[in-house]
Write a structure and sequence with these properties.
There is one protein chain. The chain is α+β, with helices and mostly antiparallel strands and about 130 residues long. The protein has one domain. It has five helices and four strands, in the order H-H-H-H-E-E-H-E-E. It has a four-stranded mixed beta sheet with strand order 1-3-4-2. The mean pLDDT is about 85.
Length: about 130
């Protein structure tokens, strides 16, 4: 009987019952700005992440809609950000709101692209201007 209860609780805690229905673009932008401008002391000293963040922020444009791009572009890669989710301990929505734009911009920088377009909840396109 104890095993059944333990297995049931483990199953319920590891299954996701909630879905992300919307994310405010204002919140996404604010979290992106906060992520870019805040670096821990250890990150600055050991990994020079403040330099990498500044470089990414200055050189990569992040768009939330394809219509915002005023230049001709070509898509060089498609990407997806899927955070590690343990439903009760670490829900998906806060992870996406805090990191989606940053992860997309960072991937664009690694691919020497010019910008990234967020398509939906997890997906983005890496673009290069013509």
């Amino acid at each position: 009987m104890k095993k059944i209860i333990i297995y049931t609780l483990a199953f319920i805690s590891l299954t996701s019952c909630s879905t992300v229905s919307y994310m405010s673009t204002k919140d996404l932008r604010e979290n992106y700005e906060k992520k870019i401008n805040n670096t821990s002391f250890l990150g600055k000293v050991l990994f020079k992440t403040d330099v990498k963040k500044k470089d990414t922020y200055d050189n990569i444009d992040v768009y939330l809609n394809e219509n915002e791009v005023n230049k001709e572009f070509e898509v060089i890669a498609y990407g997806q950000y899927t955070p590690l989710v343990i439903p009760i301990l670490r829900p998906e929505r806060p992870r996406l709101e805090k990191n989606l734009l940053w992860k997309a911009a960072r991937k664009s920088r690694k691919l020497n692209a010019d910008a990234t377009i967020i398509d939906d909840k997890n997906h983005f396109r890496v673009i290069k201007y013509k």
